[in-house]
Write a structure and sequence with these properties.
8 helices, 2 domains, single chain
Length: 338
Amino acid sequence: MYALEVDESWVKGMLHCHTTSSDGFLSPEEVADFYRSRGYGLLAVTDHSNVTKSHIKSREGTFLTGIELSKGESLLKEPYHIVGLGVDLSELRNLGGPQETIDAFNSAGGLAFIAHPSWSSLVHEDLACLKGYAGIELYNTGCDVEVAKGYSVAQWDSLLSSGVRCWGFAVDDTHRYTVPPIDADGGWVVLKAGEPAEMLESLKNGQFYSSTGPEIKAVKISSSAVQLLSSPVFRVNIVSHDGRGLCFDADNLRELMKAWREPVHRKGMERMYSNVESSVEDETSLVSIDGRSWKAEVALSPKGIEHVKLEVSHFRGYVRVEATNERGKTAWTNPLFL
């Protein structure tokens, strides 16, 4: 079972950003104030080849030491960018390749994840050959708004399908902050607030979700069931290996309810569904769908899908959930490994 119960004690966290200590536009103090003013409860400054920490100790909030290192060479002759959190090692710059760098972070009690795989042109073989990293950046704001290579969800699913157990992180990789195109406050993680060591442990254990907008209020994933409670969204995707997932789209749900009420249309749908029922409560449609190999209950308000409950028997390998609102902003859970 993979489960998150999100309450008021959970906060937004930024795990990848830069300051004037490397190539960022704001000082460490300004960066701390920038994210704190926008409701973030966790910040990791990850300057290039430089651990920046002493400058922000006086600022309110929880901080993790961090660094971004460029190491090795991929199949397409590009370096790996590795973000390390929770460790202050003076010898980091002298480490060799990407595997040695990841191992050093893990040995020192920290964690490492792979930055912007799409921007770095990393293919599956580049990522699958490495061991021990906590995850990859499935979304990077700066890479998205600047060069349209911010999403690495396909690489994530490829890794998960091949048996690599890794989490998905949404980050900013901020440099510009207030200079268009704005690369700040566009992608973040949400996790339970606590001391730095506690929050680092949550990140290691996948006890967080990533988002560019929607809020996940609760999620439970097992080998045969999924429950999601979220802010209103347009679409909910349950993703598993190969074609074993399902999609719930607000417009398609409305069309399904309408078509099922008309006998001429229902007859052509009975190969896919054995029953579709709906009722209305306080303007929210409660839709029950019996598919041929699954059952679902969906709460659909005028603002969008707010609750999905699914029973299914054909998941394989892993299961994760993503929810996208009408503006195209998405929240991602971490996977349950089967």
